[in-house]
Design brief:
With 243 residues, the protein is mainly β. It has one domain (41-242). The protein is 14% helix and 44% strand. The protein contains one helix and 19 strands. It has one helix at 4-38; strands at 41-52, 64-75, 87-90, 93-94, 96-98, 101-103, 106-107, 116-122, 129-134, 139-143, 148-149, 155-161, 168-174, 181-187, 191-194, 204-211, 215-218, 229-232, 235-242. Strands 1, 2, 5, 6, 7, 11, 13, 14, 16, 17, 18 and 19 form a twelve-stranded mixed β-sheet that branches. A hairpin with a 2-residue loop joins strand 3 (87-90) and strand 4 (93-94). The protein is elongated, with a radius of gyration of 29 Å. The relative contact order is 0.19.
C-alpha cells in the first residue's frame, strides 16, 4: 500500500505533466490556426471593359456597356485547389461561381464609363483582400452600326478609345456558320477596311475589336500568393447583316 507521502508525490507528478502538456497543446493549436489564417491565396483576375452594340434586328439591349470580370481563386499557388466558397465582389457586385471561376456582367452607363474598378475577395479563414485598380480604358466601335448592309462593298471599321488602349486586333466572321474569318492584327490608327469580297450576301456578321496587348500587373498583397495577377482587356463588338 502506498504511504501518504507516495500518494502526494504521484499527484505532484501528474500536475507537473498537465502543466507541460496543456501549454504545448494550446501552442500547437495556435500555430495551426495561424497557418490557416495566413495561408495565401492565388488569384487571377481578368477584366473585360465591354462595349456591345445592338443586334441589327433587335431593339433591346441597345449599346450595352459592361464590366465583365472572370476571377480564379486558388489555395497557395496557381496549381492549388480551387476555392469555391469565397465571397468575391467587383465594384459592389457579387460574382457567381461557375465552372471553376467567379464571374458576372456588370452594366455601366455610356455617359459615365468608369475609369477604375474595386475588387474584394473574402475566402474562409483567410485575410480579406481589397483593392481599387485602374481600368486600361474603353474601346468603342463607331462603324459599322447594327444594320442591313449592301453586299459587294468595302466595310470601313472605325473605333475610338479612352485611356491608353493601344493597338487592336480586328476580327470578323459568319455568326451562324463560322465558315470564314477575317483577322487583322496590331492596327494603331483607329480605322481598318475589310474588302467587299470578304462578306457574301445574306450573312450575319459578328465583328469585334480587341486590344492586341494585354495590360497585366501582379497583385501585391500580404494575403496573395506569388504570381497573382490582374489582366485588363478592353473590346467592342457589333452584329450586322449583308443583303
Amino acid at each position: 500500500m502506498f504511504h501518504e507521502v507516495d500518494i502526494m508525490r504521484y499527484i505532484g507528478y501528474a500536475l507537473l505533466a498537465l502543466a507541460v502538456v496543456i501549454p504545448s497543446a494550446v501552442c500547437m493549436s495556435g500555430q495551426s490556426h495561424s497557418a490557416v489564417e495566413t495561408d495565401p491565396i492565388f488569384i487571377r483576375v481578368t477584366i473585360y471593359p465591354t462595349a456591345s452594340l445592338s443586334r441589327y434586328d433587335y431593339n433591346n439591349d441597345i449599346d450595352l456597356y459592361e464590366i465583365r470580370p472572370y476571377i480564379e481563386v486558388r489555395a497557395g499557388s496557381a496549381n492549388g485547389i480551387v476555392i469555391s466558397d469565397a465571397r468575391v465582389t467587383v465594384s459592389g457586385t457579387e460574382l457567381e461561381f461557375k465552372d471553376g471561376q467567379y464571374l458576372a456582367r456588370i452594366p455601366v452607363k455610356r455617359d459615365a464609363l468608369p475609369k477604375d474598378f474595386s475588387i474584394r475577395i473574402a475566402a474562409p479563414e483567410r485575410r480579406i483582400i481589397e483593392k481599387t485598380l485602374p481600368l486600361l480604358g474603353w474601346l468603342i466601335l463607331e462603324s459599322p452600326r447594327p444594320d442591313i448592309i449592301e453586299s459587294g462593298q468595302d466595310i470601313e471599321v472605325r473605333w475610338m478609345s479612352t485611356g491608353t488602349c493601344g493597338p487592336v486586333n480586328v476580327r470578323a466572321y459568319d455568326f451562324k456558320s463560322d465558315r470564314f474569318q477575317f483577322n487583322l492584327d496590331d492596327v494603331e490608327n483607329e480605322i481598318a477596311v475589310i474588302p467587299a469580297d470578304f462578306f457574301p450576301p445574306s450573312t450575319i456578321v459578328r465583328l469585334f475589336v480587341i486590344t492586341s496587348w494585354i495590360s497585366k500587373r501582379f497583385f501585391e498583397d500580404p494575403g496573395t500568393a506569388r504570381g497573382s495577377e490582374i489582366n485588363v482587356i478592353p473590346w467592342s463588338q457589333v452584329f450586322f447583316r449583308t443583303k
